[in-house]
UniProtKB/TrEMBL annotation, chains A, B, C, D:
The lineage of its organism: Bacteria, Pseudomonadati, Pseudomonadota, Betaproteobacteria, Burkholderiales. Belongs to the extradiol ring-cleavage dioxygenase family. This is Metapyrocatechase. The keyword RNA-binding does not apply. Residues 8-123, 151-271 form the VOC domain. Keywords: Aromatic hydrocarbons catabolism, Dioxygenase, Iron, Metal-binding, Oxidoreductase, Repeat. InterPro entries: Catechol_2-3_dOase (IPR017624), Glyas_Bleomycin-R_OHBP_Dase (IPR029068), Glyas_Fos-R_dOase_dom (IPR004360), VOC_core (IPR037523), Xdiol_ring_cleave_dOase_1/2 (IPR000486), XylE-like_N (IPR054560). Homotetramer. Its EC number is 1.13.11.2. The keyword Ribonucleoprotein does not apply. It is an enzyme of class 1 (oxidoreductase). It catalyses: catechol + O2 = (2Z,4E)-2-hydroxy-6-oxohexa-2,4-dienoate + H(+). Its cofactor is Fe(2+).
Length: 310, 310, 310, 310
């Protein structure tokens, strides 16, 4: 198999302060499809074009933020192999039994040096995208309910020890470095973008003193017009926008950052080029040009980008 | 490494009846970047956003068509492993020494049951996309010279024994089936679309009595507006258009098919969804609905699609 | 007032063979807003972004086609002035009292040399576009119900005596010629595009032996992506497509031509440049290049364009 | 003639601190076409798709800002009529002889209550858009040289006495009010958008204590993708961006505001709806919602919008 190991981001569990308010935001404004609720009171969503049962889960809690971020791997053998590799590397792993999350198989959970909980899993029930498997339609009303992203694309996580995180993801989990922002002295990286396939990023990290923080989960749109439409829908619904619409210099992707009612930032994103692991050198941004990397037209390092996390 | 084995289409060598006429077409109208000419008289091109030295090669000959289609693999160990796997599967392979093609390492060549020559290689000199590696620009004039695709995306090849080709690509080379069109009786496939990563297709085949035929090489654009612009540039240059602009039902991608001056069809393409190898079932088109798969708005199986190859 | 006289196309009344089938097509697939039904059984529609009560009316009849096409004029004084001008020019006019059409004032009706009934009127009740007049929203769900054009844009009518029609529209009604296709001998025009403002066309005519025929009514979309989406929605609903998506050379606009269930052609259209009446010369297409004028990428004069009318 | 009186914005003359620096900005980055220089040292430009000889003129001076803004009228009779109407209204007018500006006929100049010099003229030499008048091309390389707007679209001017300006433009010059922002007490307008055709604005004014100030001249693009591209080209060239890319709530148009090297703001703009003079009510924004009117997604009244003029 040419595409092996870790396939893609599969699920993110997020804490919200008021569950129904969160549901209204993610279901009615962002346009995720609600696929279930479990005995713990968690609400499960998927993006309309995803085939697996869920990719985004809300849990009510006293503070906002990320519970865990999970990657789907190719199969159970891969899951077991990666679990063994993690342990051999010195990472303590935990097995969470199948069924703890709705329609999801056994998960391998571990904490990374930035303080985030990462999970791997091989099984999640396929429920389809609603377009059919035989003579599928190319357009469906679901693709226009709310902002209606096609998939959970990636997350940007803030925490300490980005160098150790990079080493773990590249040496054990099979990711490669696509882009990075250097520290002011050029000796290290303040931010890294990592891919496990040929997406421009599947996960990204930025150095931050407090561990385990969420900068944003990102949802993929297909066109720049859909990014504009996302901004329109946010405005009509008084969703607070952070940055955008604009293009990132990093990844060349186009974006709006906004906040959910609990203060979790989310991104509606499109575009970016497609790298491959044979690309010898990661694209590098100097610290003094971080602003152009963040907001390409404005060349501006917005203060909130560096300071507001959940 | 999560992305292993065969990475992507890397090069296609095409026969043209008049070399300079072909160069004018592919360089000035399609907007490929000419990167070299070799002692055999072959002319090498790359797409502007590709980093490797070449992806498309013209050779003057008495008849149009495809000499060979090559895939880049992760590294030399992968190349040797796949060579051994092919031989173990019963496929005779040939080693072509590094340097036979400009800036390209050793290639493993073999004929597949449809009569096409396929190659694997691990090394091609990286020359970059002209945007720089440090604080790269997000826009360059090269991205607007001619139609200016970002990469060689895939090819559709016509020949016999599609079932055997599918078995070889999926069992030995690590591809998976993304979509297919059934035979009229539903017992087999008349056409298959295969991926080795999470592109909607890296190679496709259709059943055809004559072996080794080229239906089209496809070049990727980034937006539907660029497809329209491609059609404008074709019209201004009197490039004969076959089909489009339109959307394919198969892959959901958007397309124009047109012909180069020697009668080789090429495609300017964008979009499509991104599948993964854990998708359990390939999308399936019934033969009676092939027209909607080809031309989604018109639901029309254009005669030329089935009959004109080179 | 800088914008005086005839303002724009205001309404078209079309014959359909089955009223409810027609309503389903225009309301549910094209996405017009149904605004009323009258005692004669006619069904009234508007496009979502139009402010007046109606712009498109269906009447059940034994044959498809156009009953009449109406233009809104600035005010009642203008209506009376144009009526007098028409009579002075030798055109017989008829007054149809206010209230004959729902929410529509008195109309001046006359037959033009191509055999079509044209109307002028000054009053139609403003019902708004649903976005509000104070702090209006920039996005509304109505803008995405079905294909959802923003307005009735123009019509192309087929009939005899195009030269006399041109003279009437330019000398009496204040239109100017924007583009034209010459006859094969170059001595006259086989088709003309006329504007009364700075739209690229408000009405167009083509020479045809049979009088009073409808080629198509055109509905405006805002982007090329919306033209693609229109094609998707047509395909899902099995609406028969005639030509497109493509760009016209004439007007530079982008189009899909398709048929309603009764065989009336309609167009979903976007773009085109904006001419002004001080442009000294109309753009001219030679007859041998009519194909590029119709279908710019394909440079093809599709047979149906010349022969299928209602 | 349906389109009479004032047709459209025809030219703007702007002061720059360094002429050659200004030329490089407007010619090489914005992509205007340089069409001439006169004995006074002024440099003349047009947008590629405009047919008249010039629309934008640079004059070197000690301070940035707007010298005058001119409208083209239908013909000489209209020019004389409007001159007489202005004088009858109590506005002092000045005749500037033909030839004072290159390829431009006699101009009628007058000062409006906001302290700006406005001009009317009927004649400017048509030089064409480079696409030809017979079988015109739909694509030309000029349309992609720099940002490459299609036309000078409108200007926003800051000065006192907006109410008196509105009265003059609507009662004498034939404009109508399309949108407005109310004063905080709702008793008057702090900003008005006026049209003389069916563009969403041909000129706009905002109340400001200092007379004769330029907020921005606006150049029209055709798509939201071209707005993104404009931002890319600005970033590559280090053009300072003020606001955007974003959508305005007012007009629904999409925008980037940026500054030329002398500090004159310019806009690259697309879209907006098309109003007509029979629309009974102008769209109205309350002062407390001015932010949503300016930047629809962010709902933010950027400080620079109110305070930085030239």
């Amino acid at each position: 198999m040419a595409m092996t190991g870790v396939l893609r981001p599969g699920h993110a569990q997020i804490r919200v302060l008021d569950l129904e308010e969160g549901v209204r935001h993610y279901r009615d404004i962002l346009g995720l499809v609600e696929t279930g609720r479990d005995a713990q009171g968690r609400v499960y969503f998927k993006c309309w074009d995803e085939r697996d049962h869920n990719s985004f889960i809300l849990r009510q809690a006293d503070c906002a933020g990320l519970d865990f971020f999970g990657f789907k791997v190719l199969d159970t053998a891969t899951l077991n192999k990666l679990d063994a590799d993690l342990q051999a590397y010195g990472v303590k792993t935990e097995r969470i039994p199948a069924g703890d999350m709705l329609e999801t198989g056994e998960r391998v959970r571990f904490e990374i040096p930035s303080g985030h909980l990462i999970e791997l899993y091989a099984e999640k029930t396929s429920v389809g995208n609603g377009c059919g498997l035989v003579n599928p339609v190319a357009w469906t009303a679901d693709s226009e309910r709310g902002i209606a992203p096609v998939r959970l694309d990636h997350a940007l996580l803030y925490g300490p020890n980005v160098a150790a995180v990079q080493k773990l993801f590249t040496e054990v989990l099979g990711f490669y470095l696509v882009e990075r922002v250097l520290t002011p002295d050029g000796a290290g990286n303040v931010a890294i973008w990592l891919s496990c396939g040929h997406k421009v990023h599947d996960i990204a990290f930025a150095e931050y003193p407090e561990p385990g923080k969420l900068h944003h989960c990102s949802f993929l749109l297909e066109t720049w017009e859909e990014v504009l439409r996302a901004g329109d829908i946010m405005s009509v619904n008084k969703t607070p926008v952070d940055i955008g619409p604009t293009r990132h210099g990093v990844t060349r992707g186009c974006t709006i950052y906004a906040w959910d009612p609990s203060g979790n930032r989310f991104e509606t994103f499109m575009g970016g080029y497609q790298p491959y692991p044979d690309y010898k050198e990661a694209l590098t941004w100097t610290f003094d040009n971080f602003g152009q990397g963040l907001d390409y037209p404005q060349r501006k390092l917005h203060e909130t980008f560096l300071t507001v996390v959940s």
